[in-house]
């Protein structure tokens, strides 16, 4: 059983460009959350998708948008890239049902904005 | 609001025990613990839900005190493989937005 997968692994973009990151959740998981992790910091919640809709959003500008597909996979889009967007972007898939709750991170996409 | 972890860093010798604390100013529904090694993604250790006080995972266990809005991670008989940064994440609702602390750097030396 494959865990959470993300692509690409690394990405270098220029300021002002747009980027799309992809995530496939662990089998059986229906919720995908995206996090941004700057060097030396904990992951910061961007948003969460469930049933193809954005369910919750953290303190990130509208330049950050996402999508979830019927197969639960997800994309994170970032427009008008800034140097400060350079970070590790983590996708986490999760399953929650009453007393059962698990969340696993993917390997991440390292985005560098120059 | 970000949970507060303590200590910020700790060095252990193999076989020693450690406790990492996590506290929040908000009422908690869940506490998540992850370990992250340099250059890798965080690895799931355990999640404690409201109503559950303690959970174990091999030699790593955790407790959750809802009234004090605190959780502690217990590492017993530490191994070299335990080295990494431990993150506490807190959830305040039934949905799964998790807010992470800045982490505790743990180094186990021979």
Q: How many helices of chain B does DSSP assign?
A: 0
Mean pLDDT of chain B: 89
Estimate the helix proportion of chain B, in percent. under 10%
Secondary-structure element order of chain A, as H and E?
EEEEEEEEEEE
**How is the biggest beta sheet of chain B arranged?**
6 strands, mixed
Instruction: Sketch the topology of chain B as an H/E string, one letter per element.
Output: EEEEEEEEEEE
Largest interface: A-B, 27 and 23 residues
Indicate the proportion of strand residues of chain A. Answer: over 45%
Given the C-alpha coordinates, what overall shape of chain B results? globular
Provide the fold topology.
The complex is a heterodimer of chains A (114) and B (110).
Chain A: E1 5-7, E2 10-13, E3 19-24, E4 31-37, E5 44-50, E6 53-57, E7 64-68, E8 74-78, E9 87-97, E10 100-105, E11 109-113
Parallel strand pairs in A: 2-11
Antiparallel strand pairs in A: 1-3, 3-8, 4-5, 4-9, 5-6, 7-8, 9-10, 9-11
Chain B: E1 4-6, E2 9-13, E3 18-23, E4 30-36, E5 43-49, E6 54-57, E7 60-65, E8 70-75, E9 84-91, E10 99-100, E11 104-109
Parallel strand pairs in B: 2-11
Antiparallel strand pairs in B: 1-3, 3-8, 4-5, 4-9, 6-7, 7-8, 9-10, 9-11
Explain what this protein looks like in three dimensions:
- Chain A is mainly β and 114 residues long.
- In chain A, 0% of the residues lie in helices and 56% in strands.
- Chain A has no helices and eleven strands.
- Chain A has strands at residues 5-7, 10-13, 19-24, 31-37, 44-50, 53-57, 64-68, 74-78, 87-97, 100-105, 109-113.
- In chain A, strand 7 and strand 8 (74-78) form a beta hairpin.
- Chain A is globular, with a radius of gyration of 14 Å.
- Chain B is built from no helices and eleven strands.
- In chain B, the strands form two sheets. In chain B, strands 2, 4, 5, 9, 10 and 11 form a six-stranded mixed beta sheet that branches. In chain B, strands 1-3-8-7-6 form a five-stranded antiparallel beta sheet, with no helix packed on it.
- The mean pLDDT of chain B is 89.
- Chain B is an all-beta fold.
- Chain B is globular.
- In chain B, strand 7 and strand 8 form a beta hairpin.
- Chain A binds chain B through residues 31, 33, 35, 40-45, 48, 50, 55-56, 58, 88, 90, 94, 96, 99, 101-108, and chain B through 2, 30, 32, 34, 40-44, 47, 49, 87, 89, 94-103.
